[in-house]
Amino acid sequence: ILNQLMDARVDQRELERRQKMKDLLESLMRVFPEGVHGRMIDLCKTTQRKYDVAIAIILGRNMEAVVVETEKIGLECIKYIREQRLGQATFIPLDTISVKPINDKYRSMLKGARLAIDVITFQRDYERAFQYACGNTLVCDTLEIAKTICYGKNEAVKAVTLDGTIIHKSGLITGGQSGIEAGARKFQESDFEAMSRKRDAYMSQLNELNKSKRKGNIEEQIKGEISAFESKLTLFREDQNATRRRLASTDEELNLIQSEIKHIQPNANKAENDLAALKSRIASLEDEINAIEDSIFSEFCEKIRVANIREYEQRQLRMAQEAAEKKLQFATKQSRLQNQLKFAEEQLNETADRLTKLQELIDRDTYNLSDYEAKRDQILQDNENISEEIQKLNEDLEKVKEELSAKTDVLNNIKKELTKVNKELDKLSKDVIKREDDIKRNRSDQFSIFRKCKLEEIDLPLLEGSLDDIPIEDPQPQDDPFEMDIDDEPGPSARGADRYVQLDTDWPITIDFSELTRHQTDTNTDNMANMEKQFHASLAEKNAEIERMAPNLKAIERLDVVEQRLQDTEKEFDSARRQAKTAKEKFNIIKQKRYQRFNDAYSHISERIDQIYKDLTKSRNFPLGGTAYLSLEDTEEPYLDGVKYHAMPPMKRFRDMEQLSGGEKTMAALALLFAIHSYQPSPFFVLDEVDAALDNTNVGKIANYIREHASDTFQFVVISLKSTLYEKAQALVGIYRDQEINSSKTITLEVDKYEE
What we know:
single chain; alpha+beta; Alpha-Beta Plaits; 4 domains; 5-stranded mixed sheet; 3-stranded mixed sheet; 18 strands; elongated; disordered N terminus; DNA binding; 7886_t:CDS:1
């Protein structure tokens, strides 16, 4: 059970280590694209699945080794890893590794045995690396074949069976299942990654085909629009030519009129003079006519109530003019309607032409429809094949998930059994400790009796040893006097236990019980209790008789002093042990509080940092923003180690924080600061030129974020030289130098009053 549980924990750590190794390899291949080829496990593949376990054992630690072109590149990679603190890695340079030649006799040594290098496939460029890792190692189908080669034929060669058993060159045999399946699964994981990449490639091809199909429809639409524009362009050109012809005709008429004006200009001057004389003559005649008309039509004018006949004529003339205007408006409207009718007829003709062209396009598309249908059928077939491949991959994935679930259930059962075993083990351990304490207590009582017998000069029948070897003083333990045992379980201290062991080994004394009767040697509980009472009664009588005799006062006094020292020492030790236990309990309480407070802060910051980073980096083009997260290097006591911070800007792949640009680092740092501040916020936040490394777009994002989150309880004090940031502020504070008093002064402006 313990081994299986250990394997499960190792698998978890292996997953974390594998991810770190993958990130390390990506960094190296990005920095040294020509010199770093990849891991050994990624550069080879077994010819059959049954060889996965054997090849995993043969490669061993070289599975994760990185193959590089030259030793120089390997040293540069090591330097890069050390500078970036990315971990550890093993490198195999192709130009300097020492490779032993393959012994061809092992290729046909025995049926069921083959060279390890023959059961894997790899590119010819990496042959030296795999010769170095595999050598002349043989892969045998069974253990009997391996024994026949190594023991029967006395070949000094390493042989590995399909189930993972190894016969070394020295003749030792090793085997077992721990860790073997995990190593073999690495080959399957590489195949799964290859299938995933193949699926992604097929999906990309399908998307490209769909785009091409949509692109063909767009091209047809654009061609139709181009045809319409070309027809309109033809009409515009015809109108332009007609206008040019009318303009030329108008120019000719203008020239003719100007020439005629030159000929008639002298006659026109004379005619104007004659006209002026005629106008004056006409005016005088009109006056005479008006006077005659007034006398003739005076009665008529009085009847119709007009001043004179001329007023009547003007009224009639105005009415005639209005009628003429109405006729002119009617004629104009009629002409406009006729023009509209003519335009509608032209539009109808154009529509008919367009209909003809569209019919031609339909005929052409109908002709090409068969080709498109064939292409569509091919695309659908490819899509169906891809779907089948995806379905197969999903089935494989479900199988892997089922295996993982089954192994998880097995692990849980193992954990339950382990818990049960641990409880039984704790119970047995407590029982053992209790019995050991009883033994040590009995030994201590025995020593006290021996010492008392020596002090009181009581003779004991001994088979071995002597009471003279028993010291009067308490023996000092040999351990460090400052060492202290802190144990939560009741029982004697470790110091006392050490003393009992010292007594048992330094003063071996064996008492002769042969003089006792059979009844006295009976260890029955009731019999022992009765004998103890009898012995105590007899002892009391003896003590009374001794008191009547002359006692050895000096010995008794010495014993009292020693016993008092023993009691004082034990009291001091018990007090010190209790103090140490109390201190440890207080320390554990403070440690738990420290962990809880750190975990509360970390959990809050870890939950908030991703959303804050998304708010700072999102835009119209990337509405989801970037991604940011935290990870602990030590989950048991996180405050003793570091916290890793990773940020991925929008539409960019994962990279180390050191490889981000200055602006990206600034955005990530601000997100971390805002997340930390959100745990226990302060009344205000001071930002000193944080926008120095940012472009206008990111400055605008920072300004919008600050503007949205600013409030009366959370104020931002921002120092900035960029208008994109401070124009969003609620108030501005400027600092200037007063030359008169040679001092600095401030000026403030409330921007909110001037908002649009």
